[in-house]
Design brief:
With about 290 residues, this protein is mostly beta strands. The protein is about 10% helix and about 35% strand. It has a ten-stranded parallel sheet, with helices on one face. β20 and β21 form a beta hairpin. It is globular. The relative contact order is 0.08. The N terminus is likely disordered.
Length: about 290
């Protein structure tokens, strides 16, 4: 075998072993686009592949295909790394700024944003949609207005020390998700969650839905909110619980709400346990 062939084999092996890329908006990384880096990642990984994202605002519609398993996006801080776009449901059905199809996705120190304000002529406008299983978000920010954060497909996810902001039903879908030590910021007199699950023989397909543990429910800076609800049942089988959370005064006394006077609430399970703050008033909750 010639020297050139040996060199080629060595280069190929070295590339195969690579486990990270760097994205920089200023051109100092290997990619200036987050999506280009995702597209270049190897498929069907069983070990982590990391994309480090340098500070910048990246206006891109991000899609993480199902074959990009074990992908990890890491920013320097959620304040300095922003993935943003401005589509909404009136112009396309695929309106989420970032959508994750792959399993075992992990994101850290990143803001996921949709800038469409539903109060000013927009509509549903997700900043982040998760359709993969076992997703993890650590110290991330999901910010938008209506339907900010969609968790779908009965898939599982974990959110730790994240900030989630929105107006109406801004955490929604039929996913299973734990929110731990998160901050939930209200931008409108509306509803935080809109959960649902498919029923089989009259029972939800899963025992669990959304669990908020040791979270803080508070006002978005500069907004006026006086009567927000902890959630309402989007369709049948909703499951939502708040445990050890601090509930701000913006939470209405009855706590929860219904969906357009239909029967969805008859199969819903809404719970609170050992919450604190002016919005935690179990004696006035809906029966």
């Amino acid at each position: 075998m010639g020297l050139l062939s040996l060199m080629f084999i060595g280069l190929s092996d070295g590339r195969a072993e690579r486990d990270h890329y760097v994205v920089a908006a200023d051109g100092s990384g290997e990619f200036a686009s987050v999506q280009e880096a995702i597209d270049a990642c190897p498929s069907n990984r069983t070990a982590r592949f990391v994309i480090y994202i340098k500070p910048g605002t990246y206006k891109e519609k991000i899609r993480i295909p199902a074959d990009k398993t074990m992908l990890k996006l890491v920013g320097e801080s959620y304040q300095s790394v922003i993935l943003t776009y401005d589509h909404h449901a009136k112009i396309t059905s695929d309106y989420a700024s970032t959508r994750v199809y792959a399993n075992d996705f992990y994101a850290e120190n990143i803001t996921f944003q949709n800038t469409i304000d539903s109060r000013r002529g927009g509509s549903q406008a997700a900043a982040l949609r998760v359709d993969g299983d076992r997703a993890v978000f650590y110290r991330c920010r999901m910010t938008g207005f209506q339907d900010t954060y969609y968790l779908g497909g009965n898939h599982r996810s974990y959110n730790k020390e994240c900030i989630i902001e929105g107006t109406t039903d801004f955490i929604y879908g039929d996913g299973i998700s734990l929110f731990e030590d998160c901050t939930i910021r209200l931008r409108k007199d509306s509803h935080i969650t809109a959960h649902s699950q498919r029923l089989v023989d009259g029972m939800p397909v899963n025992k669990f839905g959304y669990v908020f543990k040791n979270c803080r429910i508070q006002l978005y800076p500069g907004e006026t909110v006086t009567k927000a609800s902890l959630g309402r049942p989007w369709r049948e089988g909703a499951r939502v619980a708040y445990l050890y959370c601090h509930l701000g005064e913006q939470i209405r006394p009855e706590g929860w709400s219904v969906w357009n006077q239909n029967s969805n609430h008859e199969t819903a399970f809404f719970a609170e346990y050992r919450n604190s703050g002016p919005g935690a008033n179990p004696s006035e909750r809906l029966p």
